[in-house]
Amino acid sequence: MFNVFKALKMFKRVKVLNYETGFKFVEGEFQGVLDAGIHRFFDPLGKIDVQVVSRREVFLRHDQLDVIVKNADLKGLAQVIDLRDDQRALVWVDDRFTRILGPGLHLLWTEPRRVRVEVIELREPQFVHADLKTILSSPTFREHLDLVEVARGQRGVLFLDGKPVGTLEPGQYAFWKGLAQVEVQSFDLREIDLEISGQEIMTADKVTLRLNALVTYRVVDPLKCALVVQQVQHTLYKDVQLAIRAAVGTRELDLLLNDKDSLGEQLAEALSARAEKLGLDLLKVGVKDIILPGEMRQLFNQVTEARKAAEANLITRREETAAIRSQLNTARLLSENPTLMRMRELELLEKLVANGKMSVILGEKGLSDRVINLL
């Protein structure tokens, strides 16, 4: 019984399922492929090793892959791909994108799964494909591709190895790793407000004040923006500062306070040429606030108060003059027209009678005259 058991141990039994493939190795050397079924080997010295792999796992990873590919007959079961350094492969399994393959030797089981392979020649750094969105949705793409996104309302300037090659519209873009150094600078094409606050400036009449300005601009030439300066908004801010100092330094305070609009126009004219060189379009330049020192504000308040008081006195004098002139005209009119004078006297008598307990009876002409004289 013991001898029978010992004899059975000298045989090796291996079962390979329908979706599996077996690789036979003798003393570490590949000897062949085992199809589905039950296989028995006489192996008294334990030199035979059978490795069974599932073909449902599409990608075969093995340390002797090159030997297996060279010596095994896998027609109808697998597809072998040998990629050069300038090649990549896109793999779809059951009509779903799976991964990108890099340079090297690859074996893909094509049964029982449906496998489709597309080999890509790396002629350009940018990867363009009809199914780019699907490919970029896979978590494996970052091993081989760099992703660049240009947001809505922006324009991207593309640099390859430090050289500008064009602009990018809003969207997603992919570039092969290792082919070139990729850099994209994005610029917002919408209107941008740039506030210049708290600028301390001395006027022509030696008054120090603080000024706040607002510049509205938009980028019209992103490529020019990227090539001329490193930070376009920072550069524009400095240019506006210098223009404000130059414009305010030639104006006296009264002129500055009375005509802020002309200052904005002067600033816009001074900055327009510079903005064009930066690839910008200046839409509006204006002065928001002019802030005076405390003592100067108090002095201006006193001047304003005195001016308003003088204006009020002038209005009062004009009203008094108008009243006197009206009385003078009335007196002249009454003196020149006795009948009108008589009617005026009668109106006065009527008012006196209405307000008191006096009764006036007018008879002869002399009596009425004496009543008027009494009044």
* Annotation, overall tally of beta strands: 19
Nearest-angstrom radius of gyration? 51 Å
- Coarse shape: rod-shaped
Q: Write the H/E string, N to C.
A: HEEEEEHEEEEEEHEEEEEEEHHHHEHHH
Helical fraction: 25-40%
The helix/strand class is: alpha+beta
What is the architecture of one domain at the second tier of CATH? 2-Layer Sandwich
Q: How big a fraction of the residues is strand?
A: 35-45%
The number of helices is: 10
User: What is the CATH T-level topology of one domain?
Assistant: Tetrahydropterin Synthase, Chain A
Subcellular location: Membrane
InterPro entries: Band-7_stomatin-like (IPR043202), Band_7 (IPR001107), Band_7/SPFH_dom_sf (IPR036013), Stomatin_HflK_fam (IPR001972)
Main location: membrane
Membrane topology: Single-pass membrane protein
In short:
This protein is α+β, with helices and mostly antiparallel strands and 375 residues long.
Textual characterization of the structure:
With 375 residues, this protein is α+β, with helices and mostly antiparallel strands. Among the domains are: 124-189, no CATH class; 192-292, Tetrahydropterin Synthase, Chain A (2-Layer Sandwich), CATH 3.30.479; 293-336; 337-375, no CATH class. Helix content is 37%, strand content 35%. It is built from 10 helices and 19 strands. The chain has helices at residues 2-9, 65-71, 132-136, 222-228, 232-248, 253-258, 260-277, 294-336, 338-355, 365-374, and strands spanning 11-16, 20-26, 29-34, 37-42, 48-54, 78-83, 87-93, 96-101, 104-109, 115-121, 126-127, 145-150, 154-160, 163-168, 171-176, 182-188, 192-202, 208-219, 280-291. Strands 3-2-5 form a 3-stranded antiparallel β-sheet, with helices on one face. Strand 2 and strand 3 form a beta hairpin. The longest helix has 43 residues, at 294-336. The radius of gyration is 51 Å and the shape is rod-shaped. Belongs to the band 7/mec-2 family. Pfam families: Band_7 (PF01145). It comes from Isosphaera pallida (strain ATCC 43644 / DSM 9630 / IS1B). Residues 145-304 form the Band domain. It is found in: Membrane.
